[in-house]
Amino acid sequence: MNYLVTGGAGFIGSNIVDELVRRGHRVTVLDDFSSGKEENLAGVRDKIRLLRGSICDLQAAQEACRGADYVLHLAARTSVPRSVAEPLDTNRVNIDGTLNVLVAARDAEVRRFVFAASSSAYGESETLPKVETMPSAPISPYGVTKLVGEIYAQVFGRVYGLENVSIRYFNVFGPRQDPTSQYSGVLSRFMLAVLQGVPPVVFGDGFQSRDFTYIDNVVDITLRACEVPSVPGKVFNGGTGERTTLNDVLKLLSQICGKQVVAKYDPPRTGDILHSLADISSARKLLGYNPRVNFEEGLRLTWDWYRHAYASVSASAPGTR
Ligand code: UD1
Questions:
Q1: Which pLDDT tens digit goes with each residue over 219-275?
Q2: 112 CB near ligand 1 (under 6 Å)
Q3: pTM (two decimals)
Q4: Is 127 domain-assigned?
Q5: Is residue 129 situated within a structural domain?
Q6: Which of 26, 46, 85, 237 is most buried, with most CB under 10 Å away?
Q7: How many domains are contained in the chain?
Q8: What is the predicted pLDDT for the residue at 317?
Q9: Is 220 left (phi over 0), alpha (psi -120 to 50) or beta?
């Protein structure tokens, strides 16, 4: 089969590309390298078709969709605080860009469009866990754009017959997540801080919780969303069904890296939700999804990866390796 992965040089995208290549599929990657990195594709570079271009360019999206059976749309601005700081840019990439990919996928008559949606669509509500049938009420520009992406995909299903499935990812972490930006995911930021020998920064009191989902689980559910028949137009939670507070993350990290990790506490971030937890019964039932790597195991695997990949930054911080 032919797969197009937009954002295929990014953290989640490149892990999906690796697995597709491993399974013997033909893969095209469309990436503008605004956050993706060539080194993420180093292991598969000679086995894939790599297009350097933006989803904001309709022609690039059309060229990328040519011959595709499945389109996995992961290219996006992925940060909540960045969307608060730059709502127009997030809207342009996540909504206008997604619309381009949908139009291109429709015109190329692909079999299915799979969208990387987000748990941020639920927004802030007291009810946990989050079930897909709950009303969506995003509280950040980012959450709005991810919800609109899902709705657009469903409308393309109704109006043009484009099969689509959306997976609402819940705080994905693991190897290749870039820790170097102020907008990077919290676990990658914590690990880099530990390696640098500086205190990780917690925004708020650290009792906020997330359903941290190890990358292998997300690769698995995303590929199931392509393969499983009779689920078009559906939205699934891609989480684990367990949540961990940031304070508990710090305790676990202390155990894993063998030294006390002491954080610095700063004021909470605007646009943040407090708690997040997925109900994954629908994904279990209809996609046959079963998270294979739990949080603690995922954290260990991730720490192992960071301490090798970022070994140079830890050279001056003894006791961390
Ligand atoms: C994350 C994803 C988003 C995804 C969503 C799904 C990233 C960058 N964002 O958003 O793409 O759609 O999950 O649920 O992966 N925090 C700190 N210190 C830091 C960084 C963050 O305390 O250095 C806190 C934040 O204030 C927040 C929590 O950690 O309370 C999680 O933040 P973050 O990793 O940015 O993820 P989300 O905003 O939940």
A1: 999 999 999 998 888 999 999 999 999 999 999 999 999 999 999 999 999 888 999
A2: no
A3: 0.96
A4: yes
A5: yes
A6: 237
A7: 1
A8: 63
A9: alpha
**291 touches ligand 1 (CB under 6 Å):** no
Report the CATH number that the domain containing residue 24 is assigned in CATH. Answer: 3.40.50.720
Residue 204 lies in a domain: no
Read off the tokens for 229: 């028949």
170 C-beta closer than 6 A to ligand 1: yes
3-state SS string for 177-207: CCCCCCCCCHHHHHHHHHHHCCCCEEECCCC
Distance of CA 78 from the midpoint of ligand 1 (Å): 10
**Which are the contacts of 41, defined by CB distance < 8 A and separation ≥ 6?**
8, 9, 14, 17, 29, 48, 50
- What does DSSP say about strands 244-245 and 209-210: parallel, antiparallel, or unpaired? antiparallel
CA of 213 from ligand 1 middle (Å) equals 12
Q: Which residue segment(s) compose the domain that 76 sits in?
A: 2-172+213-238
Domain assignment present for residue 281? The answer is no
142 is an active site residue = yes
> How close is the Cα of 39 to the center of ligand 1, in Å?
24
- For the CA of 173, the closest atom of ligand 1 is 15
pLDDT averages per 10-residue partition of the chain, 321 residues: 98 98 98 97 98 98 98 97 96 98 98 97 91 95 98 98 98 97 95 97 97 98 95 93 98 96 96 93 98 98 97 67 39
